[in-house]
Design a protein that fits this description.
Layout (H helix, E strand, L loop, with lengths): L5 H11 L3 E5 L3 H14 L3 E6 H7 L3 H12 L5 E8 L2 H10 L3 E4 L6 H16 L4 E5 L18 H11 L3 E3 L17 H10 L4 E3 L7 H10 L3 E4 L1 H17 L6 H22 L6
Parallel strand pairs: 1-2, 1-8, 2-3, 3-4, 4-5, 5-6, 6-7, 7-8
């Protein structure tokens, strides 16, 4: 199936009141596992490569091309997305590799500088038909909208979208990145208020820390694109640990990484229905 644009997954999900699962890729096995899980669930999916993952690989091209190839070979619609890019040069590289969307993160800047930088990147991406996600951030807060206690103001969010022209907005409603325990409390009332005020799809970052029943409630309240990374990394690492504990003589990484890939595929297949990425 040809690679699809992110908007082709998120747009129909918004109109149907469903969710769209977006899962982070670190190694090629993550991309393979995420697609396998989506195929098992019969749902579209978004592969995300973050700027941190690019830094890990030393460059975007190799892992980016691999993700595009895996997506193109899938039996369900798959989009490839650049996550949390802070440099316009990285955005342009992703566009050149065929990514259907980018998340440009200017949240460390003050409001006016964020708007100016994001509007410029958005205008450039739109000339190539690429969908842009962004976030407001906190003034002076290095963790952006995902700093503990941060909350997005609906009126400011609507003004930001109008000023930048972005296609989706990441909002702060109670989650944080890199949580390994499911203790985040999503402010569902704020989600509903944001949905009423903001004319573009809403994105939830830090979803690994949200109790699974609340992920479903968050989508029902108005969130659409749901990003999950840490939860899959926990499953990936646990599978490797378990295999090596049972087989201490193992030295072939294909043996234990395959177990990790299978574990991630099972989690993706299980999570997508919870996100209402599969029509009930």
């Amino acid at each position: 199936m040809p690679l699809v644009a992110t908007g082709e997954i998120v747009g129909p999900a918004v109109r149907a009141g469903l969710g769209a699962g977006a899962f982070n890729v670190i190694q090629i096995e993550h991309a393979q596992a995420i697609v396998a899980g989506a195929e098992a669930a019969g749902a579209p999916v978004i592969l995300q490569i973050s700027e941190n993952a690019v830094r890990y690989h030393g460059a975007l091209a190799a892992i980016g091309r691999a993700a595009v190839e895996v997506a193109t070979a899938a039996r369900v619609p798959v989009a490839v997305h650049l996550d949390h890019a802070t440099e316009p040069t990285l955005v342009r590289e992703a566009v050149g590799l065929g990514f259907g969307s980018v998340m440009f993160d200017a949240s460390a800047l003050d409001y006016e500088a964020n708007v100016a930088a994001t509007a410029e990147v958005t205008a450039d991406c739109h000339t190539h038909g690429v969908w842009v996600e962004a976030e407001l951030g906190e003034v002076g807060g290095k963790d952006g909208v995902h700093a503990p206690g941060a909350r997005t103001d609906p009126a400011e969010a609507a003004a930001y979208v109008a000023a930048t022209g972005v296609d989706a907005l990441a909002v702060a409603v109670g989650t944080s990145h890199a949580m390994v325990v499911k203790a985040a409390v999503v402010d569902l009332g704020l989600v509903a208020a944001l949905r009423a005020a903001v004319p573009v799809p809403l994105v939830l970052h830090g979803s690994s820390g949200v109790p699974e029943a609340d992920l479903t409630r968050a989508v029902e309240a108005g969130l659409t694109k749901v990003n999950i990374a840490t939860h899959l990394n926990v499953a990936y690492t646990r599978a490797i640990r378990d295999h090596l504990a049972a087989h201490p003589e193992a030295v072939d990484p294909r043996r234990y990484v395959a177990k990790a890939r299978d574990a991630v595929a099972r989690e993706v297949a299980r999570l997508l229905p919870l996100l209402r990425a599969v029509a009930p």
